[in-house]
Amino acid sequence: MQAPSRAIVSNQPGPHEDLAQRVARSLAHPLRKPVAEHTREAFTVARRWYESRGDMPLILDAGCGVGLSTRRLAARFADHAVLGVDRSAARLSREHGPLPGNALLVRADLVDFWRLALAAGWQPLRHYLLYPNPYPKAAHLKMRWHGHPVFPVILALGGRLELRSNWRLYLEEFALALELAAGVTAAVEPHVPGDAARAPEAYLTPFEQKYHASGQALWRLVVELPHDAGLVPTDPTRPTGEDV
C-alpha cells in the first residue's frame, strides 16, 4: 500500500514579502545564464518533431516528471502536439507505456528550453505546470517559478497556462506575480479530479493521485495569456537575436 503523502509545511504565513521585488527584478534585468548544450540539442530535436506535426496546436507539459501527464494529455487532445519536458533522464525513463504518436518527451533544463522556445517564436495553445516543487521555505522564494528570473519568459509564451498544486500559497503567490508582471487577474480555485475511482487516467500525474488519495486539497490556477515577447528584458550588450 502506498504511504500517505505528508502535507506541505512552510514558515511563511502568507505571500512572501519579497515577491514584488523579485518580480520587478525579473522584468528589469535580462537572464544571462548560458544555455546548456544538451538543452540546445534537445530543443533542436523537439523543434524538428514539432515542425513535422504540420499545423497541430502545441501543448507544453513543463516539468513532466515521469511523462504520465504527457501521455494523458496527448490522449485527451489527440489533434494537438504534446511536448513533455523534464530535466531528469531517470524520471523520463520510467515505464508508463508507449508514447502516443502526437507526443514527445525530451530531457532539458526548463529555464533554457523556455527561452529557446520564445526565441523560436513558439506560441503554445496550452501550457501546463503540474505540481512543481513548492520549495516551501521562505528562503527559497527565488526557486519557485514566479520568483525565478525566467518568470517573464513563462508569461511571454502565452496560451492557456494552467498550474496545479497541493499548496494553495504557491498559486496565490503566482497569481500576485501575474498581476504585478502583466496586469492579469487569475483566480485560485479548488481542483477535484474527475471520476478517478473508476478512471485512474482522470489523474494527470502520480503526485495528483497520491495527494488526492491522502485527503489533501488540490488547487489550480488557469489564465489565458497573450504571446508577448516584450515582457522579457533584453541584454543591450548583445546583438539582437543573441540573447539566448
TrEMBL record:
Per UniProt, what is one GO molecular function of this protein? Answer: methyltransferase activity
Carries keyword Repeat? no
Q: Which reaction does it catalyse?
A: guanosine(46) in tRNA + S-adenosyl-L-methionine = N(7)-methylguanosine(46) in tRNA + S-adenosyl-L-homocysteine
Into which EC class is this enzyme placed? transferase
Return the EC number: 2.1.1.33
Q: Which domain of life is it from?
A: Bacteria
Q: Does the keyword Transferase apply?
A: yes
Gene Ontology process terms (BP): methylation
Q: Which UniProt keywords apply?
A: Methyltransferase, S-adenosyl-L-methionine, Transferase, tRNA processing
One Pfam family linked to the record: Methyltransf_4
State what this protein does: Catalyzes the formation of N(7)-methylguanine at position 46 (m7G46) in tRNA.
Record's protein name: tRNA (guanine(46)-N(7))-methyltransferase
